[in-house]
Amino acid sequence: MAGGRMPNFLRPRSIQARTALMSAIVSLVVLTVIGTGLDIAIRNRIHSHLFMDTQRVATDWIASMGPNGIPAPSATHDDLVQLVDSGNRVITASRAASGRPPLTSPFPTGQDRLQYRIECPDKGRCVALTAVRVLPVQSRLFWNGEPHAVYAGRTEPGLLASRRLELFIAIGVLLMTAGWTWASWRAAGRTLRPVREIREKVTEISVRDLSLRVPQPSGRDEIAELARASNNFLERLDTSVRQQRHFASMVSHELRTPLAGLRTQLEEALLYREETDPYETIRTAVRTTERCQAIIDEMLTVARVRTAATTEPEPVDLGALAREEAAARTDGVPVRTEVKDEVTVLGNRVQLCGVLTNLLVNAQRHAYSEVEVTVERAGDEAVVTVLDDGDGIAPEDRERVFEPFVRLKDGRRRDPKGTGLGLALCRVTADAHHGTLRVEDSPRGARFVLRLPLPAGS
């Protein structure tokens, strides 16, 4: 058994069984120690009473001695009492001790006149006795100074002599251990019942149906926290799977049309070789391939932002970032930047730069003469506003523009080669930074507002 560990074949598989077994072992050890101490205490208590009684009997015997040094007959009784000389020879004895050898040996010394002893003969019960050496004045008076002693004893009660005390204590220890083990089994069973219910419900959940949730017990203990965490995980997983399915269906729909057109053109070139210009077919195929590649690249970018592992955020100065991006937009209508408050957020600089770039490209595409970028602080949030002076976005389309591959009629007219993933990527990036990106009301044009939380204490 390496390291004192229990072999696997002896270790119960159930946590409830392991808990009950451990409780049984601990309670058996503790109760055995308590039982041993109780046995010793009871024995000492009984012996203490016996010693007190035998000491009283011995002193009474000494006090009742007549002129000849023999106790008066009235003082004798059924206790084991003997008067012995210095040679440990019995001079006289009570009726119960008559005919017996000396109850104990050796003879008590002068320095220790009173001694408590327990003698256990080969046959019969043990005897708890008191050995009292007669005072020297009495020895000189009765026996010419020869030392004498009185032995007074009583046999142990049957509870001690027959080991019934240990038997009763052992039975009590076993019964209490069994009761404690049963209580631990029941308590562990009640504690683990929600876990079994959670396990049964989890086995019913599949990728096809992630709408099920595990039972959530009340309270704030570890099992309740586990159930809440599991339900939160299932909620996020369900949302992610639904988004992936929706995203995959839209991607397949967007790619199906150009691929179908490409296949049709190639088949026509093969079937009607004399009537088809091969160079024009190749140029059309290249343009279609470029569009498919653009869709795939944008799709991978969105997927990376959604599933990217959490990295250590870095401080990003939104005012400086807005100035840099506005200065880089030299094509198209001019971009004017106004930084009302210097605000710094924690996030991924590259991703936030991509958000501003996409918003500025979209605004320049629809603006007539100017794009305004404003950076300011509102409470505990940093607010970046991108406003163009174009025709704006209808209220019913303000959420649709953030869906992947959704392109409004004006957007398709102004940028026929677009993929419809730019604003969707901006919304995903804002969500990843625990912020929001919405189209809000404005007197003219489209007003995109990015809100990001500021670090605590800033």
Gap between N and C termini, in Å? 59 Å
Question: What's the tally of helices?
Answer: 10
| Helical fraction | 40-55%
Tally the beta strands: 12
Question: How is the CATH topology of the largest domain named?
Answer: Beta-Lactamase
Shape descriptor reads rod-shaped
Radius of gyration: 50 Å
Descriptive report:
By secondary structure, the protein is an alpha+beta fold. 50% of the residues lie in helices and 16% in strands. It has 10 helices and 12 strands. It has helices at residues 15-63, 136-143, 158-161, 164-204, 222-271, 278-307, 318-328, 349-366, 409-414, 422-432, and strands at residues 80-85, 90-93, 114-119, 127-133, 148-155, 314-317, 335-339, 344-347, 371-378, 381-388, 436-440, 447-453. Helix 6 packs parallel to helix 10 and helix 7 (318-328) packs across helix 8 (349-366). 22% of the residues are buried.
